[in-house]
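Per reviewer request, we include the raw input and output of the structure prediction for the construct analysed in the revised manuscript.
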Amino acid sequence: MTAAAPAAICHADHAGHLRARIVAHAQVAERTWRIRLDCPEIAARAVPGQFAMLRIPDRYDPLLARPLAVYDTFTIDGKRRHADFIYLVHGKFTTALTGLRVGDELAVWGPLGNGFDLPAVDHLVLVAGGIGQTALLALGRERLGGAAYGSPARAAPRARRVTFCWGARHAGMFGDVDDFRAAGLDVHLATLDGSAGVRGTVVDLLDTVVSRAAAGGESMHVACCGPGPMMAAVANWAAGRQTGCHVSLEEPMACGVGICFTCVARIRQPDGGWDYRRTCVEGPVFDARDVAWTE
């Protein structure tokens, strides 16, 4: 586990710190907004699963920045220049963020964290709960060959197909689902109230969609992001089928660069015990087998 730390720390050491202009900002679902920033230093270097810290300049309440996953990046005049972030309105920062308009600026630093580095498989299954889709779109696009990320662009193995399973409380929580369809992903939804897709949890969705699809003997791997209990359930689902699974943890962060130890998670060690690891530095992506999930 500790062998991965130096590479992750390198991301923090070389993160760009800049003022980024807002070029688009709109609500896309219930309490969910999408913001596009002109931040070429971050857009050019970010890989799927990384995040950036955002702060409203010249304001001291809230004082601290907040982490947002890099949802996707966009090329302008031949260069990666814009980055999209999606956030759920919850608390002072995100409430204040909704009041910003195109042309306003944010203080941003990143890209941060280790991102997804998954093995080559025939079938990649992406699983999101709540707002966990934000960490997964770029990964799906990359593995289908629709986009390349990083500077220099990293060579990621292609998957023959990518399935995206997304669970939420009700249909109004899904925003920009067509982004995943347009990227070529096979999209399936689950809602607790049955208002969209399968009635039930995202694990119920895995049982009905992915278990049937896996009958052909393809190699498969799962990448997951969302609330902790949901990720623990998905990790158990994958382990029960002897399928690899990586998760992007959503521990609360204060600094994003490993100084404050606010975002620690319990990670298993080779000796069978566990120790705390900083989600912002050693993560946010971990092998699900190494996470000591809290009951």
